[in-house]
Amino acid sequence: MSRETTSSENMETDLSNAKGLSVAQIIKDNQSRKIEDGSNENLPIFKLHLVETWQHIDGFCRRSTFGKNIPKENKTIMMIGATGAGKTTLINSMINYILGVQWENDFRFVLIDEGKQKSQAESQTSKITAYQINHMDGFRVPFSLTIVDTPGFGDTRGISHDQKITAQIQEFFSARGGIDHIDAVCFVVQASLARLTHTQKYIFDSILSIFGKDIAENIIVLVTFADGKTPPVLEAIKVSQVPCSTNESGDPLHFKFNNSAMFATNKKSGGAKASDCENFDQMFWNLGFSSMTKFFTSLNMMQTKSLSLTQEVLKERQQLEVLVERLQPQINAGLTKLNEIRETYAALEQHKAEMDANKDFEYEIEVTVPKQIKNTSSTFLTNCQTCHFTCHDKCAYANDCDKYMCSAMKNGKCNVCPGKCVWNVHFNQ
């Protein structure tokens, strides 16, 4: 049975009155709410209080914050992986580690409430969300942490949906006032995979296309559903020659997790069979604890990558994409003009005798002229009034005064229209 109860909404708890309590206990009592009661198999679950501090105008990405913002170093990681890899559960496991939860505690936390699970064929995560976890005394890590959670690739909606996710990630990291650095890209993958699927290869290619090849040394493999053995997926990654950080042995830098014990009950029960299950659960808990310690130690030593250059690269790439996309209409227009010239030449040849005799003559050819067509789509257009040309047919800017920021513009002039006109003769029509 599930019910929801709310703890105190006071986010500015006076911790001085909580002597003897762990930070996890304080957060449970003051900065979370219970979303599930305990049972014979699982412990009570509490969801952290989050404050949404930013959301994209299109609603596909957002930023949520936990705790009071303090002047503390902030590490940023992005979690990415195929649908069903266990990414959301791993993020929740990270939170329990960071907040200092012990195996013996009679509660667990979640950052992301998966609620009633839908089909595993579709990604549980629908939006890109940056969770900023502000540091508190008692955390197991010495810094604040921002976790960027992304929708899973490779679900039943196909490659077009994967391409949409990639475009959204691009937009998220180039948004104004967004994230300006990244410390690690965490590729979440199941241990048992003997070879990488096309989806997994696509994920690596997408990341490189967004951040550039330099990000490879910041790509870490997080292996889920792992046991004590060497995960087969490591060999698959090596065979596929996908770029990522490596360890001293030349293997992909990886950390093993088995999250099956994260929410399992730790209450002692009778019987040999029950005792065996408890031992396995605690073993997997200890495995996860050890891997988390190694992961965050490694993260702390990684060189932070600034995204200011990435944003410039993304802007340049968007400009090139718009330029290439709008080249085709200009090529078609050029071919049409060439055909008109050929028809004119043929007509003049036909009337050569009249021309030689200096006589008047008439000829008729078809001429193409620009024509305005009503925009019935929901997208914005950038049209040049001088060239009578659509320079960008999927513009993000509705207001004409913002057209200087359109992807078709560079250094105040249009990079696409035939006349390379100044930005302020372009309008949304």
UniProtKB/TrEMBL annotation:
Domain AIG1-type G residue range list: 75-227
Keywords: Nucleotide-binding
Pfam families according to UniProt: AIG1
GO molecular function terms listed in the Swiss-Prot or TrEMBL record: GTP binding
Family: Belongs to the TRAFAC class TrmE-Era-EngA-EngB-Septin-like GTPase superfamily. AIG1/Toc34/Toc159-like paraseptin GTPase family. IAN subfamily.
Name this protein carries in UniProt: AIG1-type G domain-containing protein
